[in-house]
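ESCALATION

Customer reports they have been waiting on this structure for their group meeting. Please prioritize. Original submission:
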Amino acid sequence: MAAPSTMQLLALLATACALQPTLRTTPQRAGRRTEVSMLGGFQMPTLDSLFKKDAKTITSREPGWLKEAREVSGYADRVAEIEALADTMAAKSDEELRSLTTTLRQRRQAGESLDDLLPEAFAACREASTRSLGLRHYDVQLVGGMALHEGKLAEMATGEGKTLVATCPLYLRSLDEKGAHVITVNDYLARRDAETLQPLFDALGLTVGVVQSESTSDQRRAAYACDVTYVTNNELGFDYLRDHLAYETEELTLTTRPLNFAIVDEADSILVDEARTPLIISGEGDDDAPQKYDAATLAASYLEKGRDYEVDYKGRRVTLTDNGFATAADLLGVADDPLGLFGTDTKWAAYLFPALNAKELYFRERDYLVDQGEVKIVDEFTGRVMEGRRWNGGLHQAVEAKERVDVKPEQVTVASITYQSLFLLYPTLSGMTGTAFSEAKELSDTYKLDVLRVPTAKPLLRADAGDLVFKSKLDKFRYVLRDIREKNSRGQPVLCGTTSIEDATLISELLSNDGVPHRVLNANPKLARKESEIVSQAGRLGAVTIATNMAGRGTDILLGGNAALTARLRLREALAPAVDEMLEPLVRVERSLYPVDDLGAIEQQLQAAAQEAAPGLRQAIFADQDNATEVKASAALDKIDEFCAVAVAPPSERTEGQPGVDACRQAYNAVKSKFSEVVDVERQQVREQGGLAVLGTERHESVRIDNQLRGRSGRQGDAGASVYAISLEDKMFNVFGSDKMGQLSFAFEIAGDDGEPLQSDMLTKSLSTIQEKVESYYREMRTNLVRYDRIVDAQRRIFYERRQEVLTGDRQFLSKLLGQYAADTARDTLANATRLLPKDASDDEKNQAYEFGAEMLQRMYPACAVEIDTACRLALEDLPPTQAPDIFTVEDSLVSGTQKGFDLQVALVDQKGEGEDDLPAILMRFYILREFDQAWQQHLRDLEFLRENVGFQSYSQKDPFQEWTIQSNELFTKLSAKVYRNSAISWLSLDASGIVARPAAPVAPASPVVSDDDDVSNPVAAAQARGAASLNANDQTGEVAGNRGERRAKKKGGKKSRRR
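Update from on-call: job pushed to the front of the queue and completed.
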């Protein structure tokens, strides 16, 4: 046989290479390492995977199809194991199913791995869901659950039931009794999911908690102590930061136990989109800033673009020209200052540049809203208002000045953390979303998350058309209006997506003028609780819905409408006024949202059921309130929602006999049945019209957001269609696509300017190239943030670990720690006093240096002055007056005197304590924590300054990142030394004789008790109730400034914000 030619070998090699990109390894069970061979970073395919199919090509969902799907074939055997246990679980009573949790936990404690317990745990959860919710997990949902347990990111299409998917791994992980967190994007979804799944977790014997933005510290602590906790990404981050600002263990919420397992919902939005900016808790800074921002805004209004400044829309910054610098300096009255806008006293540049950015780059109804005199940021990815967040760098104040609302003082950073650092604190992190595969590499590099694409339970039938490109926005909106009108006339529901509130408002006005009924979803905070109602009906016959962005809305769009959700809303609408008439306006639903307006006799049944349930609901609402006559409306509605979740679930042994539950369940089922008569007919009519039509009016900067909008259509095998209508005047073309504008404009010149769109592969490719450029730009931004933050994160972990040790330490630990601080400072003081001595220094010079060092130490440590003097005299007794002692002898004397004085200080303070309170430990802990916090805040400011200026190192041929690493570590070393020194000085400067002992039966006022004979300029006032004292942070002598209540009130003045 002849040897193959070179061309034949090349052809074979090309064939092999062509196959490689589509081959994947089969998933492995958690805890088992995948054995692969790596060639230049490429993972060689297994032989078995050569014969598997892509899930998208498998049009049948017959039993056993998972084994044929390449992406998930490795999970097929585990799914079969779970299915084999179905009959066993179904045979168990409710109590037996509940007690199975105890049995599994005992087996886990005995040493069985979670992987071994997985089939039984998943089967039990599946059975509990079937009984309590009427929902049975699909096979692909079990696959998604296993992926989450393994610490992967499960990409599942919209409508595939990700909320239910999370229950199986949550139950399995709860067997460790270490807590599991579900992290969502907003309060509404957190509470909705917790309430919806409460019956399932109750059936399994698990406790469920939910953290909301208005939750108190006690409520947060209780929620985090549950088996499963639902919380938003913002609240989780702020709770972590607040815990590391606490002064007592009773103030801790999240960190009462180590973080264990987390599932991030809408993972790409949280882990990628929102990860560009850190979470920050800030305090107020310069009080004069508001007036300066007003003046800078006025000056910016006189400057003209092109003449005085240039705008970089891509980099989102404004640069002054030479003429602009001169004009601005003249307007602000610093023309005579050689430094102009950068003068050390005025620093007008820090106010003028944010004012220019606010003028040219940030616009009302697009980037922010003004609600009741407050500027609120609009999330560009979800279209929601981001409550409590503020832009940094003075931008938020500049926008406030621009909008002529009250300008709040500047803020200084108290504590901060990036999402990357926060989520890497979890030993096992997982996530789920509808769109993540395009960011798989970044998710793997940053979070160590592998993305698994889970197939849909039913084949996807949605038709995604190519982009329609118009030359102008006018042409585009004409087409949008025409297309919506045509689809609405024949009954096809339309979801129209926009990227800004401004465009949504424009389209709404056009449709109103044309007489087309429609509903709008935008960032209005008043519509937060109404979103589910609007979205649930977006699939009804002839419905038209306009949305600024559909990411994170959290409610599926069902063709023909959602009978179950609307029936639940109707039950809620009946229950609220039955509890209290004042709640009626808060739950009122627009009548046209209901499939049937007149319920006839069912209405009487509904009202009777509500009256039967009302007494029990009132008791539940007011039971936990200190004031039994007043309660927040939101708290009352939360209890009503919890009741509704139980009432709409199938009956169970646990809910049997609860007052009003059975009556409300029967009324709910009757309403649901009535609504379903209309919904079922409309569903078939909508399917005949092609299902839900998604019409995007502008491409987003991220293709993932575009795909999320498309994903609202074609849910679980439904018919659907999607198309994007865009124009060359859209923001993305102007900012990022300038190099493509020429060829696109040329295409229109050839086709003619008749207002009709162009649609071709070349245009689609050009658009994809622009989006890739945008995503690459932001990916580089996030990568750079992570790169620099790794240094800060390492420092933060060390610092917070030391702080927590102090917070939880007893007197023995604190005495040893602070005593070591004092001894180290004594050694450093002597070293500083002698560092300039020459090697041949005379005895007289040495004695002078030693005396200077001892005198300095006595001044720093007044409480040790006598002991230090005594120790030094004893060390010098046997030496002639003119002979200098050995430096080690002097050091031992200073350290010995310091330690004796320290022990005496502890004893003196201890005499002032009463009862069970350990006053020395309380005061030592406070002094150390105070110095920790002050030093860390200054360290953050130093790092921010270093980060802003380290880029200039490149001009001197130095690597900015390397310089950042070196200098930031030097700053951290100095920070540690400062904490040690100042903590010891504060404690040993305390005049223990000035502390007034607390009476045995305290009837003293809340303010500090100070004797008339005491000198208040010296330490100290009284340790107040429960032995706590709050010390003036600006007083290095250690004067007590107030009690713990006053300190907490002062601490709560700090604000949380997302710096943008």
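Sent to customer with the following note: The chain has 37 helices and 26 strands.
Escalation resolved.
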